[in-house]
From TrEMBL:
Annotated ranges, domain Pyridoxine 5'-phosphate oxidase dimerisation C-terminal: 173-214
Binding site for substrate: 9-12, 67, 124, 128, 132, 192-194
Gene Ontology biological process: pyridoxine biosynthetic process
Cofactor binding, note field: Binds 1 FMN per subunit.
Source species: Bacteroides faecium
Classification of source organism: Bacteria, Pseudomonadati, Bacteroidota, Bacteroidia, Bacteroidales
Gene responsible for this protein: pdxH
Annotated HAMAP family: PdxH
Primary role: Catalyzes the oxidation of either pyridoxine 5'-phosphate (PNP) or pyridoxamine 5'-phosphate (PMP) into pyridoxal 5'-phosphate (PLP).
Annotated FMN binding sites: 62-67, 77-78, 83-84, 106, 141-142, 186, 196
Protein name listed in UniProt: Pyridoxine/pyridoxamine 5'-phosphate oxidase
Subunit structure comment from the entry: Homodimer.
Residues in the signal sequence: none
Amino acid sequence: MRTNLADIRQEYTKSGLRENELPGDPLSLFSRWLQEAIDAEVDEPTAVIVGTVSPEGKPSTRTVLLKGLHDGKFIFYTNYESRKGKQLAQNPYISLSFVWHALERQVHIEGTAAKVEPAESDEYFRIRPYKSRIGARISPQSQPIKSRMQLMRAFVREAARWLGKNVERPANWGGYAVTPTRIEFWQGRPNRLHDRFLYTLQPDGEWEISRLAP
Ligand SMILES: Cc1cc2nc3c(=O)[nH]c(=O)nc-3n(C[C@H](O)[C@H](O)[C@H](O)COP(=O)(O)O)c2cc1C
């Protein structure tokens, strides 16, 4: 490597997060930040890193796209038999991390995941592009496969089978809704003295807010 990684550093000066501007509901602040990321045309504003845990307590992460935000829940879609799907079947605890570097912001969410109702998955599946629907049907996500050729053959065969028809959602593909219990907002500030505010869900359903040291 030619670049000395220790020399890469950036001051975070874009914005601040003031205590007296925090809403009582973290979902409204999240919606505002997500909209600001979309408006700023950052790359993949809905990309979120999902953390799950194996039955042995080993964590793993991967990126997915947020496809909905309703009733206080975060919705994403995937294959229920993928590695993450298998882990969630055994342990519903989950983390979601959004990072919007251009805005010097991140949001960390912890909570539990549950499958959405099949009708909700059907509704989203229907609006996906035809080829993405075919792809979801033929990809045994997270399983070893012999070659790309094997995948392409399965794709072409399945595409021909559904030509001119309504592609059915496979039962192993659908949404998860994440119910948050902890949401942390991070705004970069100069001298590494960042603003961090943590919302923790209380037993009475209210959110408690605390400032965390950077
Ligand atoms: C930008 C981006 C968006 C992605 N979106 C999704 C998604 O919405 N759903 C999904 O299942 N995988 C998505 N992936 C692929 C996942 O990161 C991952 O490779 C796949 O879900 C298998 O993960 P697993 O083996 O840990 O279950 C995305 C990857 C990237 C880089």
